[in-house]
Amino acid sequence: MAFTATRDRSNASIRWSRADVLGLVSLMVLALLLSLPSSWRDAAFDLVTPRPSSAQAAPAETSGGILNGPARVIDGDTLDMAGQRIRLHGVDAFERDQTCGAGASAWPCGRMAAETLSRRLDGRTVACEPLDTDRYGRTVARCRTGGEDLGAFLVDRGLAVAYRRYSDDYVAAENSARASRIGVWRDPSFTDPAEWRAERR
Predict the structure, then answer these.
(1) Cβ contacts of residue 50 below 8 Å, gap of 6+?
(2) pTM for the complete prediction?
């Protein structure tokens, strides 16, 4: 960026144009964003980066009933596809405000689940196979991106548990994550997401 500062010969001061000041402020903001921890930086960029509108991101339904299109993460197990809420089948992710672990080892497992899923989806097409509708009117679906099952993706990383009340599909993945001490299983002193929600009702 070329500065156009000029020296005022009468008082030897430097005068900056409005464009120069805005450019300098922009550089300072960018430097600040780049110095933030990665999770904060991602959130900050989300605030200043426009998301596609619903009209631009409308999912297409194929003849087989599969919903295809970009998706926005609402929380660890809920997506939005052009205004349609999709609840991932068979898994229960930690709630966005939920923390896991105890004392000094507590960490934001709910926020981590949502951010990890969001990074996985980043601009990719999601294919969701509707299976049911829940009591909140959300479509319950098995969703994949790049052929990868998103429910398994979360459970494998210890960021969701198998929702045994509705399905046994991800019990093996949960058992594997527990045995490997991945995610919440590093310190299993956490509250099950369903119990955590019930305590707040």
Answers:
(1) none
(2) 0.69
